[in-house]
Design a protein that fits this description.
Elements (H helix, E strand, L loop, with lengths): L1 H54 L4 H12 L14
Amino acid sequence: MDDLVGLAVIVILVVVAGAICGLIALVQLNGLKQEVAVLRVKITHLQTHKSISQSEPQSEASTAQAALSRSEPIAHKAQPNLTRL
């Protein structure tokens, strides 16, 4: 009889731990969905801005500046956002 009570307690603890992990995962998923939505808006804005700037003729100075900015190495790496856990 004691074995069944111990087994029931273990099963209950596993179910509660799984529920807590599921809630944490849902919160993180909701945050990621919001970040994806923001990034999609930024991409849309950049694409419309790019199409507008491509339709305008570029001067030689702006073309040279764009070539220089593409050839410069990136000095830093993107750091992951670890504030939300």
